[in-house]
Design goal:
The protein has a domain of about 130 residues: Tetracycline Repressor, domain 2. Helix content is about 70%, strand content about 0%.
């Protein structure tokens, strides 16, 4: 997973995979079938680990604005951890690939869409619970925070610190709608 995360699908060679796993090419094919299948397993492992904090924060019994603030703060922290490659394995993966890798691109596009859908669901919950204005454009707001998270991933990959990302989050949270005061 870390090898694909660090080097991307195309940048990770078959030789580097078998060397990192300490297995023979025949064992690789017997175990995984193909590089694409291993990549799918690696991204699923990444999604399982990141989903714990991502979905966990959005599921917390707190108001929606606080949930999104915590989510973006956790994103800034997670994307700059010293024990993992920087950024997000999913955010910029396989955006530009040759036609032969269309299926890999589609897989990553679907993964990115799920994050936005989870955000949309949390905003809808906020509307139902009365802490998000009813006239909020749910898709646009979820899209905004999804793009913010993707941008934080790129910034982290480019060397931004968690402190720098947290400053961006503070500015970005100004876009979250407030309930009108009576």
């Amino acid at each position: 997973m870390k090898l694909f995360w660090e080097s991307g699908y195309e940048g990770t060679s078959f030789d580097s995979l078998v060397a990192a796993m300490g297995i023979s090419p025949s064992s690789f094919y017997n175990s995984f079938g193909s590089k694409e299948q291993l990549y799918a397993e690696a991204t699923n492992a990444y999604l399982e680990a990141s989903g714990e904090w991502f979905i966990g924060i959005l599921s917390d019994p707190t108001d929606t604005r606080t949930a999104f603030k915590r989510l973006m703060e956790a994103t800034a922290t997670e994307f700059t951890r010293e024990d993992l490659p920087s950024g997000c394995m999913i955010s910029v993966a396989c955006v530009h690939v040759p036609p032969a890798l269309h299926s890999v691109r589609e897989m990553m596009t679907a993964h990115r869409a799920v994050a936005r859908q989870v955000m949309e669901a949390r905003i809808l919950r906020g509307i139902e619970e009365g802490d998000v204005p009813a006239d909020t454009d749910v898709k646009a707001l979820a899209g905004y925070f999804n793009v913010l998270a993707r941008g934080l991933a790129v910034q982290a990959r480019d060397g931004a610190t968690s402190e720098q990302l947290l400053e961006i989050v503070q500015v970005a949270m100004q876009a979250f709608p407030h309930m009108p005061t009576s």
